[in-house]
Amino acid sequence: MNLDFSIFNWNLIQNFILKGLWFSVMLTVVATAGGVFFGTVLALMRLSGQKWLDAPAALYVNVMRSVPLVMVILWFFLLVPLVIGRPIGAEYSAVVTFTAFEAAYFSEIMRAGIQSIPRGQVFAGQAVGMTYGQNMKLVILPQAIRNMLPVLLTQTIILFQDTSLVYAIGAYDLLKGFETAGKTFGRPMETYLMAAVVYFVICFSLSAIVKRLHKKIAIIR
Amino acid sequence: MAMDWVVFCKDTLSGDVVSGCLGHGRDITYLNWLFTAWGWTVAVSLAALTVALVVGSAIGMIRTLPDKPWLVRLGNAWVELFRNIPLLVQIFLWYFVVPALIPSMKAFPPFILVVLALGLFTSARIAEQVRAGIQALPKGQRYAGMALGFTTPQYYRYVLLPMAYRIIIPPLTSESMNIFKNSAVAFAVSIPELTQYALQVGEETARPIEVYIAVTVLYAISALVINRVFAHIERRARVPGFVSSGTGVGGH
């Protein structure tokens, strides 16, 4: 069995791989930003102490976490067009799905982060006359995000890997780019191997950076 | 939007509604098929969990061995390799690339290849937990074993591992539930499990909502059962004085 990697010229990389990489990175960035935002909202709902806020947020998070991501992707691909009345395409559907899905995971991270802030800080904020909103925005959340930064970034790396699951609805991501190139040039094995190498290099480098950051933050605290 | 649950009682070939909802012999209904698909999901998950526990434990232990830097490095490399490539890509590698490179694996059925993919992918994560569990033990436990004259395999077997496994049950629970969820990715190589069923039957019957609901509920039930089983094991095996948090984040 001989492998032939000569098909990987700049033309192929530009036309197939970079197109997919762009979508995977965009999906990761948008879903992380959106997921952290909505996840923080969900975390605040769960920590509010109000049952009518806590219960729906808890239900949402637990349902999302007990269903495979692939099924969530299929659900959104089916339901979003029904709700808004027109088809939106696999790529937009993927963005909506990942934002909604990751919000559930990020909310658990943010909840742990907020709970890691000593109660005294909350009281200190109240003592200097801050409102709940000011206290959250100026005292609690900046520290919570900083404390949880390594975990947030690790989750983002997992999220980047999971973007490959948009395969289920046929969106054009990094893996799809490799697969299409493999089919076009009749070299599926080489392209799958290269896909593995590229994912590995990206994820390994990112996790090495996160590890260093983790050490840095751990020393300061 | 009206639901039409009768769809599950239809014969998969003729499309006629079968009385009693379950077909017999060669006539099967979509409900029969659903249960078969659930069986495949359970089979893939349990087999992969076995592979993951065995390989993950071995790699995790290797990474804590004293005076064996090369074995430790090998274990670390294993974890990094299987953790930094998406599961779907790994499944494709096992399915398309490995049998072509290793001719003797051509005879392996897809089920085995998917189990290997999912099992080894998860083994990296379990290895990480086993390592953390062993390293979380006080150093004195290792020395106590040595002081009693145990060899390395002996003090691992009689002192470290029984403690380590009991304190890592909560993260192992999350990982076992993750295996059930991750088994959904096997649809990509046409293993007839629940997600593959949802895709195919949703299309065939033009009733995707009912089909997705049924499949989603079965996934949730599977996750719940695993959770209860492990909660029971955890209660029975809890080490007094050792509390480890069960909120492992990430991984789906």
TrEMBL record, chain A:
Q: Which SUPFAM superfamilies match?
A: MetI-like
Which PROSITE patterns has this protein been placed in? ABC_TM1 (PS50928)
Q: Give the bilayer topology.
A: Multi-pass membrane protein
Name the GO terms of the biological process aspect. amino acid transport
Output the Pfam families linked to this UniProt entry. BPD_transp_1
Chief localisation class:
membrane
UniProt KW keywords: Amino-acid transport, Cell membrane, Membrane, Transmembrane, Transmembrane helix, Transport
The ABC transmembrane type-1 domain covers which part of the protein? Answer: 21-210
Q: Which Gene3D superfamilies match?
A: MetI-like
GO CC list: ATP-binding cassette (ABC) transporter complex
* General function of this protein: Part of the ABC transporter complex GltIJKL involved in glutamate and aspartate uptake. Probably responsible for the translocation of the substrate across the membrane.
Question: What is the protein name given in its UniProt record?
Answer: Glutamate/aspartate import permease protein GltK
UniProt source species: Rhodoferax sediminis
UniProtKB/TrEMBL annotation, chain B:
Q: How does it sit in the membrane?
A: Multi-pass membrane protein
Q: Does the keyword rRNA-binding apply?
A: no
Question: Could you say which protein family the record assigns here?
Answer: Belongs to the binding-protein-dependent transport system permease family. HisMQ subfamily.
A GO BP term here is: amino acid transport
| Domain ABC transmembrane type-1, chain residue ranges per copy | 38-230
Any one Gene Ontology molecular-function term assigned to this protein's record: transmembrane transporter activity
Entry keywords, A to Z: Cell membrane, Membrane, Transmembrane, Transmembrane helix, Transport
Is Membrane included in the keywords of this UniProt record?
A: yes
Domain of life the protein comes from: Bacteria
Listed GO cellular component terms?
Answer: ATP-binding cassette (ABC) transporter complex
Q: Which NCBIfam families match?
A: HEQRo_perm_3TM (TIGR01726)
A Pfam family annotated for this UniProt entry: BPD_transp_1
Q: What is the lineage of its organism?
A: Bacteria, Pseudomonadati, Pseudomonadota, Betaproteobacteria, Burkholderiales
Protein's UniProt name: Amino acid ABC transporter permease
Name its cellular compartments: Cell inner membrane; Cell membrane
Q: List residues traversing the bilayer.
A: 37-60, 81-102, 108-127, 211-230
